[in-house]
Design brief:
This protein is of the alpha/beta class. It has helices at 42-51, 74-92, 126-136, 144-151, 158-161, 165-174, 209-226; strands spanning 2-6, 14-18, 24-29, 55-59, 97-102, 118-121, 182-186, 195-199. Strands 1-2-4-3-5-6-7-8 form an eight-stranded mixed β-sheet, sandwiched between helices. It is globular. The termini are far apart.
């Protein structure tokens, strides 16, 4: 396994984890304000785990999160996500490319899927994106459930997180459509996709290590099944 950075014109570098033999490729799109490592390093942990299964990973540092130096405007957000997807296609060649988004980053997924599967962790409703934007303006009392689903955090720092408001309002319009094939969602939230995996926590990346690792192992074992379209029939 090797790890390296790929520069992106007008954006931040993409972190690649590549096994010796690539069977699948996954592009990670973190939630707004979320660093590319995910809560407690989950995304990088999954990348290492999946490499043992022949799955290469590309981690985006999207505007508005982590160490990104790009102003978090919707056009910059879309451009960076597009660059990550393009790099994933180059790395994959003819292999499947899966897209995994968290929270409001689901708005960056294409309406029509290509060679792989579109997966979303905790997809928010459009109105929840708008509510989260209002919370960042201090117009509403923070709601941990809404914030977890939209930006991947249960609390906010107005000074640090307020810049992503334009992203959330833009995402609300995009999320009217279901842009994913499989979702991972909390038990108290009804799924919007026809296929879903349920977990018990509000935020599966924030509490138990066994939950985070378990989700990683479940997805690692699913990639071959997910690209077989006969498994989606009926």
């Amino acid at each position: 396994m090797e790890r390296y950075l790929i520069p992106v014109a007008g954006g931040d570098p993409v972190l690649v984890t590549r096994p010796k033999t690539v069977r699948h490729v996954v592009a990670f799109l973190p939630a707004p304000t979320e660093p590319r490592c995910g809560r407690f390093g989950s995304f990088t942990q999954w990348a290492a785990l999946w490499a043992d299964h022949g799955v290469a990973s590309l981690l985006a540092d999207l505007p508005g999160g982590g160490d990104s130096t790009v102003v978090p405007r919707p056009d910059a957000w879309v451009r960076q996500a597009g660059a990550v997807h393009a790099q994933a296609e180059l790395l994959a060649g003819r292999k499947p490319v899966h897209l995994l988004a968290r929270g409001a980053a689901a708005a960056l997924l294409p309406v029509v899927r290509n060679s792989g599967i579109r997966i979303v962790m905790s997809p928010p409703l459009p109105e929840e994106c708008r509510r989260a934007a209002a919370m960042l303006r201090d117009d509403e009392v923070p709601d941990a459930d809404v914030l977890s689903s939209v930006i991947g955090l249960q609390d906010i720092d107005q000074e640090l997180d307020g810049d992503v408001r334009p992203l959330l309002n833009w995402a609300a319009d995009q999320l009217v459509k279901v842009r994913w094939d499989l979702e991972l969602h909390a038990a108290h939230r009804p799924p919007r996709a026809t296929s879903a995996i349920t977990f018990s926590d509000i935020d599966p990346l924030a509490r138990l290590e066994i939950t985070r690792v378990g989700i990683g192992h479940v997805l690692a074992g699913l990639f071959d099944e997910l690209v077989d379209m006969t498994n989606w029939e009926g």
